Amino acid sequence: MQEILHHLLHEVVTYSTMGFEWIGVIIVAISGVRGVIELFKKNPDIDLHLSQGMAVALQFMLCAEIVKLITIGDLTDIILVLGIVVLHIAITLLVAYELKHKKHERHEYREKKLHEQQLQAQQLQAQESKETPAKE
Questions:
Q1: Which of 32, 57, 115, 136 could cross-link with 27 by S-S, CB 3.0 to 4.6 Å?
Q2: CB-based contacts of 63, cutoff 8 Å, min separation 6
Q3: Model confidence over 89-103: pLDDT tens digits?
Q4: Distance between CA atoms of residues 61 and 85, nearest Å
Q5: Burial environment of residue 123 by CB neighbours within 10 A (0 to 12, 13 to 18, 19 or more)
């Protein structure tokens, strides 16, 4: 009975690992195609969309590596998979940091542009009011 359960566990881990890895690959492919489309449309937010896609895909890949930890037999494999997990976490954190930084940067840029437009509108109104003589 124990041998059957052990074999079943290996099968579940194998298929779930492949599933998570495929989901990650599909997300990267979709993000890449979307990025190419946005490149042709000259969308300035292309890097944000690509970073978001990579971050989500990396999280699925990290899930796959964590599931692999369940069935590892010897210390060499554990060290190898733990190294991969650490690298995935580091890359995910870097992509998340970059994404957050870019969003903040874009938000500040848009706020500054909006403020400049408001100032220009106020200046135009002031000039128009100076040029138009007051009727008495």
A1: 57
A2: 20
A3: 887 788 778 778 877
A4: 9
A5: exposed
User: DSSP string spanning 20-65?
Assistant: HHHHHHHHHHHHHHHHHHHHHTT-TTHHHHHHHHHHHHHHHHHHHH
Reported as a single tens digit per residue, the pLDDT across 106-127 is 778 788 888 888 888 888 888 8
User: Distances from the Cα of 77 to the Cαs of 43, 71, 74, in angstroms?
Assistant: 44, 10, 6
Contact 45, 106 (CB under 8 A): yes
